[in-house]
tRNA (guanine-N(7)-)-methyltransferase
Amino acid sequence: MSEEQNNKPVHERRIKSFVKRGGRMGTGQIKALQELAPKYVLPYSPQAPDWDAVFGRQAPRVLEIGFGMGDATAKIAATLPQFDFIGCEVHEAGVGALLQRIEEGQLTNLRIVQHDAVEVLATMIPKASLQGVHLFFPDPWHKKRHHKRRLVQPAFMAELVQYIQPGGYFHAATDWEPYAQQMLEVLSAEPALQNSALGFAPKPAYRPLTKFEARGLRLGHGVWDLVFQRR
């Protein structure tokens, strides 16, 4: 990394919260994007919107980084109606799928930003405004030479904690044990965070099991949750 790159804020470097993937979209997802996106998807902006106006109320807010197909996101929003949720995802199929779930569940406490969460944090989220941040099953970048691409790194966490209110939390989950161990090491070393457990945390009741996760557990695969509180 050049000296010029090293002096840039984290969100201006090449780290991304996503990996570009292909994928076909179903007719239901396409229809949801066409009909529901104007109501529930916020365009990326270089400045923060009035989030109270967006949701029509004042409430604790949680940001989710990369919600995939949105099944867990919708279930959590339905389970915790007293919270507002901002989901970041770049893939249209996932956005379309979550829009379908929003409509089916009549979820008024959930909005989507179809953009890289690292940049959304830097421009659209005021500092110390989030009650929580969720990061569920991020890309583990299995190969050692790719570990530098993992999202949970010291520099990123040092920036991320600035957007969480004191007393708020960061909750990550992964099914890749080496990444879980790295997360535990990075989060434990961040002075603004305190572990809510001795090591890994029990799965919080609000986080549902995904179909993929349930299948993995039946096969004896592990899942590791980490819940750290903002000091």
Observations:
- The chain has nine helices and eight strands.
